Structures are given as C-alpha cells and as structure tokens.
User: Which sequence fits this backbone?
C-alpha cells in the first residue's frame, strides 16, 4: 500500500499516503510497537466528515484503547474491513494491509498535509523524546 518514505506523519503517530485526493491512513511502525498486540478496531463510518486532528477511530490492544486522529480534514471514503476480522494486521503490516481508513481531502486538506512530517522529520521527532507517551 505505502512505504514510510512516501508518507506524511502526524505528531499523534498516524501516517497518510495520498493517491490524488484520497489518502490512506494508518498508525506508524513506532506506534504499533507502543500499542503492542492489537485485539480490536473501531473504524469510522464512510461518508463521515472529519476535521484535522479529530478522533475518528479507536484501536484497542491488550494494554489499552487508543484514539486515532484524522491527519487531515476530509470525508471518510473507505475503511479497511479486513481489520474487523484480523485487527493484528496493524501489528504485522502497519504500512500495508494494516491501513485503517481512507480520507478524501479537499484542496485545503491536501495543503494541510504539507505541514505534516516526512519520514526524516518524524524520525527526528521520535529521537527527540517529544513523542513519549
């Protein structure tokens, strides 16, 4: 689906990878390790409009439940139904089969994605300790 090098990252550890105006969203490799064993996923409803930074999905692990935030504003275009049966895909394939949902962004949403971190900046963010939970 996507490679980390082609994604943009939010400080809340979501990644987004665009093809045109539609961006697939998932949790970073770092986040899935922190979350540990994912056992349940609550996905947003397609057609729902979300604001940038709005909690729109929940990932539950053996540790706790974690909100997943929209990295850009837009409309939920699709969800990864495979996660309903196999939520551990998030752990096994955070940048492939473990994507959570897709957002159709308008021009403003696309522009806001430019402010998100590329992989190098995200790695620096993690190394700085600012990402500690």
Assistant:
């Amino acid at each position: 689906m996507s490679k980390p090098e082609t994604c943009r990252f939010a400080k809340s550890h979501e990644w987004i990878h665009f093809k045109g105006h539609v961006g697939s969203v998932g949790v970073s490799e770092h986040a899935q390790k922190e979350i540990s064993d994912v056992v349940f996923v609550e996905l947003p409803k397609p057609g729902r409009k979300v604001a940038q930074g709005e909690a729109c999905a929940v990932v539950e692990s053996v540790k706790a439940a974690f909100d997943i935030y929209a990295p850009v504003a837009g409309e939920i275009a699709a969800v990864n139904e495979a996660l309903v049966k196999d939520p551990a895909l998030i752990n096994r394939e955070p940048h492939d089969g473990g994507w959570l949902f897709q957002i159709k962004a308008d021009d403003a949403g696309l522009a806001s994605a430019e402010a998100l971190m590329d992989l190098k900046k995200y790695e620096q963010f993690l190394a700085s300790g600012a990402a500690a939970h």
